[in-house]
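Researcher: Batch entry, complex prediction.
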Amino acid sequence: MNGAQSLIRTLVDAGVDVCFSNPGTSEMHFVAALDSVPEMRGVLGLAEGVVTGAADGYARIAGKPAVTLLHLGPGLGNGLANLHNARRAHTPIVNVIGDHATYHKRYDAPLESDIDSVAGTLGGWLRRSDSTADVGADAAAAVAAAQDPPGRVATLILPADVSWGDGGKPCAAVPPRAPKAVSETTVKQVAEVFRTGEPVALLLGGAACREPGLRAASRIAAATGAKPFIETFPARLERGAGLPAIERLGYLAEQVAYQLDGIKHVVVAGTKAPVSFFAYPGKASDLVPDGAQVHTLATLDEDVVAALEGVAGIVAADTEPVLAPAERPELPTGELTAQNWVQVIGALLPEGAIVSDETNTSGLLLPGATAGAPRHDVLTLTGGAIGQGIPVATGAAVAAPDRPVVNLEADGSALYTISALWTQARENLNVTTVILNNRAYAILRMELQRVGAEGSGPKAKSLLDLSTPDIDFVRIAEGMGVPASRATTAEELAEQFARALAEPGPHLIDAAIPPLL
Amino acid sequence: MNGAQSLIRTLVDAGVDVCFSNPGTSEMHFVAALDSVPEMRGVLGLAEGVVTGAADGYARIAGKPAVTLLHLGPGLGNGLANLHNARRAHTPIVNVIGDHATYHKRYDAPLESDIDSVAGTLGGWLRRSDSTADVGADAAAAVAAAQDPPGRVATLILPADVSWGDGGKPCAAVPPRAPKAVSETTVKQVAEVFRTGEPVALLLGGAACREPGLRAASRIAAATGAKPFIETFPARLERGAGLPAIERLGYLAEQVAYQLDGIKHVVVAGTKAPVSFFAYPGKASDLVPDGAQVHTLATLDEDVVAALEGVAGIVAADTEPVLAPAERPELPTGELTAQNWVQVIGALLPEGAIVSDETNTSGLLLPGATAGAPRHDVLTLTGGAIGQGIPVATGAAVAAPDRPVVNLEADGSALYTISALWTQARENLNVTTVILNNRAYAILRMELQRVGAEGSGPKAKSLLDLSTPDIDFVRIAEGMGVPASRATTAEELAEQFARALAEPGPHLIDAAIPPLL
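Model: Structure tokens for the complex:
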């Protein structure tokens, strides 16, 4: 058994049985070994950002890591942005990067580069397999590290000769650790905060964004008058009819200032205290209101759901959560607008949908329109590195082949990793992509004003414009094997969206939406 | 004057007047400042690999750097593969990366990451601007460092508040250094090597790959019987009728072993001694024949052309170079094959063309077919990180608007940075892209065998297959605003290629070529 075979066998035995890959010569033994371990599924991406984003989406839904296969330093570079998003989502990923043979590195061949330093910036777990006999144990350690709460990117660098060498030994899975328990003292202290009678905000993140955490938070809020919020960009948020509808903290500092106005205590549960996404001249970076106190109920590696339930047991023992009623918007009519496209989605979103949301400015009104839709999961852009939505949808569909995946995608963001559509076609994945095509980097038009860049003229505006020439996503999707159509009215969007959901396999709708702002 | 304005003013004063950019919020003041310095041209790329690859292509043709504008760590990650290729090409690039405001970094906002460590792996020049007053001087230093022989990526990290702050001071250009002179002693010693009567190979790289260096090398070879070779992947190679036709060293170790068979001395001039691109089980990494001596005539930062002319003056004072006659292949007929498509290119390549060559396996027979075509420049994949050809062609066309640019591009490689086509349409660049569409990662099929990965079965082969579904580059190009057509016969390719060259603006031809191997 060679090193590659021991690696894949170990991964499969640890429950990691999907490999998103974009291999090169140094990974050929890994590729060849796929045939000797039939349980491992190989999914090809045509660019590494597709591979890493798909692994992120897969794990958010599957609840366990996939393995990525990247080619040397440039492959890691191409995949780095979506690994950054995965890092911010605390997504478990076993990130295998092939390297030159150990004895070949000193020759500084053209593809030689410093993989370790680049991978080190991901701040997760990082190891280089030095010998074939160790590969199995390294792989088992990588799987455990990836899943160690709250989850991380575990990178294993695999030199070609270590991969092709004989003497590989599969290794038994190392059970991942459970989240740490929050102390009873902390639970009681935080419960007291809710009893002060002063205005409290309860900020939820991580595992708290799923049903049990949301229910506990809703009970606390209902019993004490505290205002609950979801962190701005949750990795996976459960919502819809029958679940507590809890508002997300806004992207803009101005929104957050409004949401937290008058708050004296911010209780953070499975997330961190809010900070501004970017700095703006003369505005604060720390979004905790002046004079408010921050209390940590649970850090990211602690059992936030049990802690919330503990607090609820103290302050809301007899209080039920407030659940969203089942209610949908009416189907709108007329030209598509920034207001009515979200009503189409709200009216038609199917039961059990997974929504990969990279709508940026176009999606500002989406949460209101879908709060009473059937239960669904929302996967958001956790790290701000655009180009995440299509790959995440792709990976989510691999993880949950029986659930409809809806990818709501800004035009500018779509272009970074557009070839993920081809993977959707190849794997016949049930993904319906709606491109919110406002023909601009609309968010940057807004930011150009917000950063106070006065005096910007035609050259600056031109660099934020995507209309010369217009991008035809119908043709691009068809070129990658995905059936596609264009919608310019609400009726067209509704008809095309319903049809796409009813048919198996991927579809794309290029929706002409004017900019919101 | 703010920091961004002082930066752009300084760059323009130093002759750097093209900015390839994919900006975000932290770069909005740079974008705004473009309107206050009219000499700077902003060129938008829809992904950072387009931006960095275009800057590489631009500088290879313009002979001076462009500036890139990237957004934070993820933007650098997306652009890293083509910066790696630029590093291997010794291309001067002023690589500006926006960062969060200095005071914002400690909040660990979602887009925070370790930019410095990733940029550090490029091994070039790296500086972080700490104060607005220093930005001008930092920019001047970056331009000088980028151009310091042999050329490099000079990265300037620009925090948002340093960019928007008042008190920017433009700085006068720092003249770049000239290449170091090779000592007369070295020239004489190396000249003696050519007089030993033993078999000598003369390996040319860097500046030696343009007319004066090629002529000197050809004289040396003609006078002494030495075998001249071009390094495997030159950044810019001048060739065609009226220039010496010097063979490139092969990509495969087996080819190089054949080319260097019996050689006793390898003289390297503006490059390094040959090494294998990858390691293969049981094969040598060092491609210098056993027992042969390596002699360095000129290192990468030395004046290799003067050194070659010095040697030629000693050993070939009365010898003329051997120049390629003007001769083209006949236009072929019938179904396209791996053999005949290169004849179409050879028959029709226009005078003064710039060829961006990312043909990989499909291009093995190209050099023979174009050796007697009119004079042209060839830009190759210097670092092995695929996804370079379309961006490099884009940048080259910006640098030389009056020259026809021909991009010969493998299908698999094209998908990494396909949105460069949109930039070609937006800027109305004269680029004719021919996709060699063999519906496979054909090079990896070959490598799967070469690395000895026996026992590879259907799963492995499937991961190297691009035919399920077929990729329709005509539709993709049209979706990005580039007129396109499909060729399946030699006649169609010839007709479409000639027409594309005759019309202004970009065109794409999706050429159905069976795999060579």
